[in-house]
Amino acid sequence: MLTTGRIMQWVIAATLPGLLALTLFFGWGNLINVVWCTLVAMGTEALILALRKRPVTFFLSDGSAALTGVLLGLALPPLLPWWISLIAAASAILLAKQLYGGLGSNLFNPAMVGYALVLISFPEAMTTNWAQPLALLDEAPGLLDTLAIIASLAEPATIDGITGATPLDVYKHEIGSRLASTVTADPIFGDGIARGWEWVNLAFLAGGLFLIRLKIITWHIPASFLGALTLMTLLFGYDPDQSVPVQMHLFAGATMLCAFFIATDPVSAATSNKGKLWYGAGIGILLYIIRAWGSYPDAVAFAVLLMNFAVPFIDYYTRPRTYGHRKPERGLPS
Amino acid sequence: MTEYLLILVSTVLVNNFVLVQFLGLCPFMGVSNKLETAMGMSMATTFVLTLASVVSYLVHEYLLVPLEVEFLRTISFILVIAVVVQFTEIVVRHTSPLLHRVLGIFLPLITTNCAVLGVALLNIQRQNSFIESILYGFGAAAGFSLVLILFSAMRERIAAADVPQPFQGAAIGMITAGLMSLAFMGFTGLVTL
């Protein structure tokens, strides 16, 4: 039987290919972040539950806090200092989840609240601190070196060229003044999309399709989200010499992670199938708007949070017709 | 044409009056408990805000400037807004007694909604033309309505949640508004006017 705990376990299992790809292409950073964020998230959850005199082990064993930590660890820059991840994971559980009454009552996606909070508070660490693909480094930092960087014992700057902006960021800022072919000549773009990122996104895509196959998530949100993002890119960004091309929108950022693991959070997403289609499409459109015309290079957190606000409203107007009731001819569905 | 569109995008999303400029917070917290009241309040505020920015522009341009008494603009705008609100109240009372009863005290309270005075004063400060003033007022009201309606739908859901006791009521509402504001910061840099 699919209990909450079992579902969360399957979702965490489905992120493993993506985590593996991240570790293979960008080093140990994400793995350490995942472990650290999970510990912080579960610790915060246990603390609040104890303060509220709720059964701690019962609520912890449903795995939802662990999943929040895992998603944050996957989404945050790999070499982020430990205390920024700590703030992100702790406020994700505290502000976005426990203050609203715990699992099932949270209006916002907890992981994305944590992410947006640290993105606004520490913009430089969150945008220029991305680990570069290992293939481009003379000497790949080992597990202990990475731990030292994350624990702020060693400066990442001392190892030259280890961090930088993401390909999405670089493309967006260079494309106005240079042609697409000269921009993508930079080795971080690999064969034209983004070195490493394309495999990470494919791995998340595979994990997501596995979840759809298991019927843990439905196809509605990923399909309408990816469809809306593609459509927006084809409408407004069809010229690769002027704006980020469609394959880079789909495979160079956090797109696939968002489509299958973040946007599909069953608590903060819309409920009915029709509502899910609107919700996914809204995220796709907002993601494109902020990526293309805003000042943030990737905007998964903002797009998801903005649509989270709209969810109660969407649910209100997309209530499925109950059996035996006809569609009202005019006015609100009652 | 693009310029007018940019004014709308800027006032509705990027410089949203409630979530980014923190104006008009009292009705935002006070009338957001039910979706229906929020919708009524949004319509009333949209009407008042647009009308008030038009009238205050005319008053400034054709009364205060020729008489060289621009220093009186704050006090004269307050008067203009009070008149417009009274006018709206009379209209609402006669067209929809139900809405009038639901909105109750909040309709006269639009007089003290700082967003209304803020829009009128910002229009002068930004040296907006007549059309720009209308759009600026309308955009501000549309942004206010958008977040008020979404927020009230959310508060209906929070009312059913198991919120820790010290955070019930207005406290969790404030936290939710803060998180909304956090997400609206994503629109930073979308439009620079």
From TrEMBL, chain A:
Signal peptide: none annotated. Pfam families: NQR2_RnfD_RnfE. One of its GO terms (cellular component) is plasma membrane. It comes from the Bacteria. It is found in: Cell inner membrane. The complex is composed of six subunits: RnfA, RnfB, RnfC, RnfD, RnfE and RnfG. The modification FMN phosphoryl threonine is found at residue 166. The chain crosses the membrane at residues 7-26, 32-51, 58-76, 107-126, 219-238, 244-264, 276-293, 299-317. Part of a membrane-bound complex that couples electron transfer with translocation of ions across the membrane. Keywords: Cell inner membrane, Cell membrane, Electron transport, Flavoprotein, FMN, Membrane, Phosphoprotein, Translocase, Transmembrane, Transmembrane helix, Transport. Its EC number is 7.-.-.-. This is Ion-translocating oxidoreductase complex subunit D. InterPro entries: NqrB/RnfD, RnfD_bac. One of its GO terms (biological process) is transmembrane transport. Its cofactor is FMN. Belongs to the NqrB/RnfD family. It comes from Halospina denitrificans. NCBIfam families: PRK00816.1, rnfD.
UniProtKB/TrEMBL annotation, chain B:
One of its GO terms (biological process) is electron transport chain. Pfam families: Rnf-Nqr. It is a multi-pass membrane protein. Keywords: Cell inner membrane, Cell membrane, Electron transport, Membrane, Translocase, Transmembrane, Transmembrane helix, Transport. The complex is composed of six subunits: RnfA, RnfB, RnfC, RnfD, RnfE and RnfG. Part of a membrane-bound complex that couples electron transfer with translocation of ions across the membrane. This is Ion-translocating oxidoreductase complex subunit A. The gene is rnfA.
